[in-house]
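WARN retry 2 of 3 for item q-0093 after timeout on previous attempt; input resubmitted unchanged.
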Amino acid sequence: MTAPEDVIEIERALTRIAHLLTRARQHDRIVGEAGVAVDRASAPLLRALADAPGPVRMGALADRLAVEAPHVTRQVQRLQRAGFVERVPDPDDGRAQLVRITAEGADAVECLRAVIRRRMAEALADWSEEDRHDLAVLCHRMVDDFLRHAEERHLLGPRLG
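OK item q-0093 returned
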C-alpha cells in the first residue's frame, strides 16, 4: 500500500526529529549545559516520572516507555543512586513498590527542560507566535492520536498521566 505524500513527508520529518533528539552528542551537550548528570537511557524514564501524577509501578513505566521491565529496573537503580528517584511501598499491595521522582530529580528535569526550551525558542525565533502555537496544538493532537491508536491496538500500556 502506498501512503499519501503528506503522510510520507510527516514520517520523514518525524524521523529527522527523532534523530536529532536521540543523538548521543546532543544529549551530552544538553546535560552538560544543564549541569545534570543523567545518562541518555535514564532521561526518558526521569521525564516520565516527572510528568506522572504520583508514584508509578515499574511495570507501568516499562509499558509506557515500550521497553522491557529489566531495562526500567536498571534505570531506576541508576536514578536512585543519583538521588533522582526513590522507591516507596505500594499502598494497594504491601509486596509491591512504586517509584517516584524526588525533589532533586524534579529539579534535574526542570534544568534539562530549560536548556531544551531555550534552544527551541532560539531555533524558532523567526516563527510567528501563531505558527508556534499551531505547531504545538498539532503536535499534541498527533501524539494523542498516535497513543490512542497504539492503545487500541494494544501496542502500549495505559498512559501514566
